[in-house]
# Entry
Amino acid sequence: MAAHTFTLIVFLASICAGLVGALTGLGGGIIVTPTLTLLLGIDIRYAIGASLVSVIATSSGAAASYVRDGLSNIRIGMFLEIATTLGAISGALLASKTPTTALAIIFGVVLLHSAWQVVQTKVDGQHLVKVDRFTARLRLGGVYQSVEGAIPYQVMRAKAGFAMMYVAGLLSGLLGIGSGALKVIAMDRVMGIPFKVSTATSSFMIGVTGVASAAIYLKRGYIHPMIALPVMLGVICGSTLGARLLPRLPVKFLRRLFAIAVVIIAVQMIIHGLRGRI
Amino acid sequence: MRYSDDKLQTLISYTLRSGVLAASALGILGGIVFFASHPQMSDFRSFRGTAMPYVSPVQIFQQAFGMQQEAQRLRGLSIAQIGIMLLLATPVIRVIFSIFGFAAEKDRAYVLITCIVLVTLTASICLH
# Structure
């Protein structure tokens, strides 16, 4: 294969990755990694490096628009990032002492169940709930713009959401993937945040979760510019497009897209767990 | 109730957008220099790791902007790698700028929260 053909294939796949990643809040690794390893036969370590680039490119590319439009709630994001970064530290410390293969299988099953719940949900967001004092003090509620106009929303169970985010950070530190899925599920299912705000805030947060491994991946030579460059440029295009589309897309469609992507991640995790390759 | 975080939103949005645009500009420039050299395809089926010349930041900068007559291929990919490193730094830059943003809004609780995030983030980068 010629160098420009290779670059073009990676670039086009990365546009799709950025688009799906920005709409679901998951970051695009599920498209970049299989394209590079299965389709192009690239070593998994280069694919892991490229996947990190795709997560951070989705996050920064999409969040630039989401934050401006009020879809990413920066207060919720910053508050929960304490939990995810603490979780990531715990994960890094525990990694050598944990049976990660068993954990991958359990986590995969949990994700399958959550994907089903996300599609079943009929009520989106909480508009008229009683807010506890802790949540009120953190000023977590907000307003987002949609095609029907400005929609105010409140946040419930901030402490439970915070605990679940710690687990999300812990698992991403232990297993390497799947942190975006738990973030969206925690915000949607536990904290009662509207689905669009949940995915947009997850997009905003995953960059910070990912950046913890950036330095070590660079140092180990996982990030090769000939692969990472078309990934970066493609994902930036795709995620910018995704961020423009999200306000106009129906929530039902977004929930389905999210569920399909989470099922793919869950099946990957279970297969990896069963093969003992985590 | 309030929620006029407009200035803060604009600041964070601009920070992210500037980082992404600067990274893209360096990436496109590097890509042009790289493809102008009519490069051969590399073999990525095996992993070269730290043997490849895009690991040490000092070396990357020398290859990208140094005075020696570097091969155009190496120069192009080194410029691109600087763009990629800049992109990888955008989440950290965003957290740092948020501290100033919350401080300008006199929101002490969130200045504290953001500082905690920055400290734990730095710790986890060092731990990995």
